[in-house]
Design a protein that fits this description.
The structure is a single chain. The protein is built from 20 helices and 2 strands. The chain is mainly alpha-helical. The chain has one domain: Amino acid/polyamine transporter I (Up-down Bundle). The chain has a two-stranded antiparallel sheet. Its main location: membrane.
Length: 488
């Protein structure tokens, strides 16, 4: 033990002797604008251009669908405010994982990590990548259907581009996100302005009898909220990179509030624009709502819309690959994942192994093409763990009332958000028992893995020896090392 202390002291001295630029750790390079861009850029992906069909189909009327969009925005904002408190209370990166670890314990945290790696992140990334590939390829084949193989190939190229950027430089990835966010906001404005102008001129016939709810059934309403909430998904990605945010006590809450208010207003206005220029029947038969809208309202600019939607998808894909690997990085640092994934490239200062880990899973899922069923899996599991994280926040407040909380959300908001999340998750078990049951089974498959490998390792010594050897060889091959300073 004495030798260990001497070694630690020696290493600490060596780190102090190094220049700041030589110390291996993730730097705080994300200011307010990149933080806002990360949230908006991840939220505004393919969802707003695809999800309106699902919301209308399951809500049953134009008026109720607009109410669902507004309520989804309010609910997502409530959740984002809860995560602003969690992000300023617990200064570690890792988002959902670290909050479950700090409030409810290691098993729920490990299961969140397990679900993220096994199906949530690959499914979401594959869905967005396929949307990107579809919007890039389709304009070249109108009026014919594009070859599915070509769509998948372009989707893989998009994923490869995003992975390369996030492996190369945190700064380049952040600047790319800012640029893509400005482009996608331009796309939303391009849809909103013609719709609002037409509405101001009295084009309101599609809103007549907007609240006819004859086709509404209670079991379909949660699915309408799932479609809307999917379009708002991504408000939690800033919490994945807390350790890289400059002045997180100020910038995390401010970025979240600015982003979510902006997105909610834009989404409601976009849907108003859709319904102004299209009937409900036209929207329901359209597989690409934004393109159908452009053919009605933007005759000269119609070819530009698929390009802007593709850029929007690319921005969401970049945001996902920027944030999600940090969860695996922190999980490995906490001992819940192989140690190689807690390492950083010695020159690039990026979590290279954690980024690369997701790449083959996404490519395999893209090639197989079994995406949409897994999206249902991902939605159920994601919202279950979000509800558990905010419930854990309320429990932590009760257990540790004196714990410093630089930003504190009103208790009513936290309780309302948690109850609504559990309600939606519970109703979805009734509405879609097959997919949600499968999600439960896949998530719970991590329980034996946890007790075999993390809680108390029962793996044979020969397996551990092979694992350590592989970790060492990968560390040399990838030129990575563990952090030399604590960043939280």
């Amino acid at each position: 033990m004495g030798m260990d202390k001497v070694q630690a002291k020696k290493e600490g001295g060596e780190i102090k002797d190094k220049k700041e630029g030589e110390v291996i750790h993730l730097r705080r390079t994300i200011g307010l604008l990149p933080a806002v861009s990360l949230v908006i850029g991840t939220v505004v992906g393919s969802g707003i251009f695809i999800a309106p069909k699902g919301v209308l189909m399951n809500s049953g009327s134009v008026g109720l669908s607009l109410v669902v969009w507004a309520l989804c925005g309010v609910l997502s904002t409530f959740g984002a405010l809860c995560y602003a408190e969690l992000g300023t209370t617990f200064k570690k990166s890792g988002g959902h994982y670290i909050y479950l670890l700090e409030t409810l314990g290691p098993l729920p945290a490990f299961l969140r990590l397990w679900a993220e790696y096994l199906f949530i992140r690959p499914a979401v990334a594959s869905y967005v990548a396929l949307a990107f590939g579809r919007y890039v390829v389709e304009p070249f084949f109108i009026p014919c259907a594009p070859p599915p193989v070509l769509i998948k190939l372009v989707s893989i190229l998009g994923v490869t581009f995003v992975v390369a950027i996030n492996c190369w430089s945190v700064t380049v990835a952040s600047r790319t996100q800012v640029t893509l966010t400005f482009i996608k906001m331009f796309a939303l404005i391009l849809i909103i302005v013609p719709g609002i102008i037409a509405l101001a001129r009295g084009q309101t016939e599609n809103f007549q009898n907007g609240f006819e709810i004859d086709t509404l059934t209670l079991d379909k309403l949660p699915l309408a909220f799932y479609s809307g909430l999917y379009a708002y998904g991504g408000w939690f990605y800033l919490n994945f990179v807390t350790e890289e945010v400059i002045n997180p006590n100020r910038n995390i809450p401010l970025a979240i509030i600015v982003s979510m208010v902006t997105v909610t207003v834009c989404y409601v206005l976009v849907n108003v624009a859709y319904y102004t220029m299209m009937t409900a029947e036209e929207l329901l038969v359209s597989d690409a709502v934004a393109v159908t809208f452009a053919s009605h309202a933007l005759h000269g600019l119609a070819p530009v819309i698929p390009v802007l939607v593709a850029v929007s998808c690319l921005g969401a894909l970049n945001g996902g690959f920027f944030g999600s690997p940090r969860m695996l990085f922190v999980g490995a640092r906490e001992g819940h994942w192989p140690v190689i994934f807690s390492m950083i490239h010695v020159r690039r200062r990026t979590p290279l192994p954690a980024v690369l880990l997701l790449y083959p899973l996404v490519v395999v899922m893209l090639v197989r093409g079994e995406i949409f069923q897994l999206i249902s899996f991902a939605s159920f599991s994601r919202w279950l763990f979000i509800a558990l994280a905010t419930m854990g926040m309320v429990i932590h407040r009760y257990r540790f009332p004196l714990h410093p909380r630089p930003f504190k959300v009103p208790l009513a908001i936290a309780v309302t958000f948690t109850v609504v999340c559990f309600f939606i998750v519970g109703l979805s078990l009734y509405s879609d028992p097959w997919n949600t049951g499968g999600s439960c089974a896949l998530t719970l498959s991590g329980v034996p893995v946890y007790y075999l490998t993390v809680h108390r390792s029962r793996l044979p010594a020969s397996w551990m020896k092979v694992s350590n050897y592989c970790n060492k060889q990968l560390q040399i091959l990838l030129e990575v090392a563990q952090q030399e300073v604590q960043t939280y």
